[in-house]
Write a structure and sequence with these properties.
single chain, alpha/beta, D-Maltodextrin-Binding Protein, domain 2, six-stranded mixed β-sheet, five-stranded mixed β-sheet, 11 strands, about 15% strand, globular, DctP_fam, signal, TRAP-type C4-dicarboxylate transport system, substrate-binding protein
């Protein structure tokens, strides 16, 4: 064998050996599925950094494989897929599982969330204080977060007052938001975020409830040139959570790695990303020459407030009828709303 051939053989053997060592390096591989596109800031600025931190702080003993765009499970099945260990970790919208997280969804009510940083602090605090913890006993929550204020985006007309909503087919993210839209005179159409673009393109809906971040992540600014900002109208809750058996099966030092990638610190990271993406999404609409109408006083505006108050009272009453401490959780959410930082 010539020297060059020998060197090539040695190099090839070394490469294969290194590859085998690297392949065997991880003690645990976590399959992390979520609904956002891989190009979205949510994926790039929250979930990928989370995976990077876990891998780095575990010295490579934990490997995280991320599957965006609902690759492993449909949006409504994300939470159960982690519960049943079809995947190990997910980030998802609680409201996609109707009536499953009713206390959590008080943060969706008008006037609770001002910014994503503040809303994420509110939601994480409600969990940390035990007020909503009973809703998550079947998984191991990592961190909670919200998007910023949600707004109305329309394909064919500008909405200024509730009467303008009459008969409009509007995508609603959850039943809580859907009830609010119904009371305002609209026809809510339930669908997860990834289905919204095609539905708007085909005329199935002519209005969308989204934060500016959602407009950006799911390219909805391309289809909706009219935007109405009713400050404090609603916000959605999200969770990043892990299969309980997978977490409990980790050795103590790797549990500490996961614990360090949990709680308020990561709630804030998620909130900062959403607030930044809101700014970018709104600027994108402005640059395109879209019309943006901002309701004076937001949810406190006299034309909007009576209906929004009615929707809030109806939701809280329904929780109390089920024996749930809805008013207690809502009152604490409002207290936290005033004390949590907005940026």
């Amino acid at each position: 064998m010539k020297l060059t051939q020998l060197a090539a053989a040695v190099a090839t053997t070394a490469t294969l050996t290194l590859g085998a060592v690297q392949a065997q390096a991880a003690d645990v591989t976590l399959r992390f599925g979520h609904i956002w596109p891989a190009v979205a800031g949510t994926h790039k600025n929250i979930f990928q950094p989370w995976a990077d931190q876990v891998q780095k702080e575990s010295d490579g003993r934990i490997e995280v494989e991320i599957y965006p765009s609902g690759t492993l499970a449909k949006p409504a099945a994300q939470y159960d897929s982690v519960k049943n260990r079809i995947m190990d970790v997910t980030a998802t919208v609680q409201g996609y599982s109707a009536n499953r997280f009713p206390l959590t969804q008080v943060v969706e009510l008008p006037g609770v969330v001002k910014t994503a940083v503040q809303g994420s602090c509110v939601l994480q605090s409600l969990y940390d204080e035990g007020l909503i913890a009973s809703e998550y006993e079947d998984t191991h929550p990592l961190f909670f977060f919200t998007h910023g204020q949600g707004h109305l985006h329309s394909t064919d007309k500008l909405v200024k007052v509730p009467a303008d909503l009459e008969g409009m087919r509007i995508r609603r993210p959850t039943t809580v938001v859907g009830d609010m839209l119904s009371r305002l005179g609209a026809q809510p159409v339930g669908m997860p975020a990834p289905e919204t673009y095609q539905s708007a393109q085909r005329g199935v809906i002519n209005g969308i409830m989204f934060p500016w971040e959602g407009q950006l992540s799911f390219r909805l600014n391309e289809l909706t040139p009219y935007h109405t900002e009713v400050g404090g109208l609603y916000s959605l809750s999200f969770i990043a959570t892990m299969n309980k058996d997978v977490y409990n099966g980790l050795p103590d030092d790797l549990k500490q790695v996961i614990d360090h990638a949990s709680g308020q610190a990561w709630a804030k990271i998620a909130g900062v990303n959403y607030d930044n993406s809101d700014d970018t999404g709104r600027q994108q609409a402005l640059d395109a020459g879209d019309e943006i109408y901002t309701v004076e006083g937001g949810a406190e505006n006299p034309a909007w407030k009576p209906v929004l108050d009615e929707a809030t009272e109806s939701y809280l009453a329904s929780l109390e009828e089920k024996g749930l401490p809805g008013r207690q959780v809502y009152a604490r959410a409002l207290e936290l709303s005033n004390s949590c930082p907005t940026e």
